[in-house]
């Protein structure tokens, strides 16, 4: 978190900064995932897990393979994959994991590159999706995949070839480019400097960030049961973007939890109870 505060402080005084120097700073601001300490109850949860690791190639930042740390709780009938959002980690699903452990489940989660205990200084959606693919290759396709925020889009990409039986999304991020723009506007980055950032993004990734749109990356058919929880007042994942996605996929069951908040949605008791009910139904179906 100290690094993020430092980046924000530097972005406040860029008048005499050269174009390339400022662009490097913007890249760090956009792609640095804030690190939050593990709390005591979260550490106890991690201590009770079976540990594993997979590797993910990072050709855009580190230029090497990154070690991704994962955790497994239980060995039950339904395999559940949990994919966290930006600036988060597996342990942040504490309340949900604790509840799901009471059922006949195998819960698998991981710290995405640049998050939690996994390697990486900077992160991006492709690293998240690469971690999902690596975990599924190691442990097999999940019966239920749960994604929060950026993790929902990572699941859409990473599970495209190995679809789960059911998909649960919590406040999914819908348009990545617009999220970048919002972040830069919050720090008063000028339009020319935003344009230059996107130019260098296209050069580095050989694609436009507008391509990272849930409407484009989501390829699951109606055979994948999908339940989606959101907050229509969410400013991180604005409802108009989500509404557009939902209208294009009318088979998705949705529920609006007004005022729950983008981050708190993974801890809300009502949502956890609904996930438990959906999981019990999957177990009963066999």
Automatic annotation (TrEMBL):
GO molecular function, one term: hydrolase activity
Keywords associated with the record: Hydrolase
KW Transferase (keyword) present: no
SUPFAM superfamilies the record matches: alpha/beta-Hydrolases
Coiled-coil boundaries: none
Residues of the AB hydrolase-1 domain: 80-188
UniProt entry tagged with the keyword Ligase: no
Protein name: Alpha/beta hydrolase family protein
Taxonomic source organism: Daejeonella lutea
């Amino acid at each position: 978190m100290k690094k993020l505060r430092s980046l924000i402080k530097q972005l406040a005084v860029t008048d005499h900064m050269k174009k390339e120097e400022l662009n490097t700073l913007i890249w760090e601001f956009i792609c640095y995932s804030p690190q939050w300490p593990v709390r005591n109850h979260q550490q106890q949860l991690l201590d009770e897990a079976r540990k594993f690791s997979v590797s993910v190639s990072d050709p855009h930042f580190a230029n090497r393979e990154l070690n991704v740390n994962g955790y497994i709780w239980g060995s039950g009938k339904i395999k559940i994959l949990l994919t966290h959002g930006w600036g988060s980690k597996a342990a942040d699903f504490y309340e949900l994991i604790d509840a799901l452990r009471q059922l006949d489940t195998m819960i698998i989660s991981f710290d995405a590159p640049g998050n939690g205990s996994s390697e990486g200084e900077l992160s991006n959606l492709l690293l998240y999706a690469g971690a999902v693919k690596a975990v599924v290759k190691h442990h097999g396709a999940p019966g239920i995949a749960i994604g929060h925020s950026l993790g929902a889009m990572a699941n859409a990409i990473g599970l495209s070839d190995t679809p789960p039986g059911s998909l649960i999304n919590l406040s999914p991020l819908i348009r990545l480019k617009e999220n970048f723009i919002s972040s830069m506007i919050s720090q008063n980055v000028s339009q020319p400097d935003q344009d230059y950032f996107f130019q260098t993004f296209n050069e580095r990734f050989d694609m436009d960030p507008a391509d990272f749109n849930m409407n484009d990356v989501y390829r699951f058919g109606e055979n994948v049961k999908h339940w989606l929880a959101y907050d229509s007042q969410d400013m991180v994942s604005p409802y108009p973007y989500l509404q557009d996605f939902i209208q294009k996929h009318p088979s998705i069951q949705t529920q609006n939890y007004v005022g729950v908040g983008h981050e708190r949605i993974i801890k809300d008791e009502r949502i956890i109870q609904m996930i438990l009910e959906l999981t019990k139904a999957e177990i009963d179906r066999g």
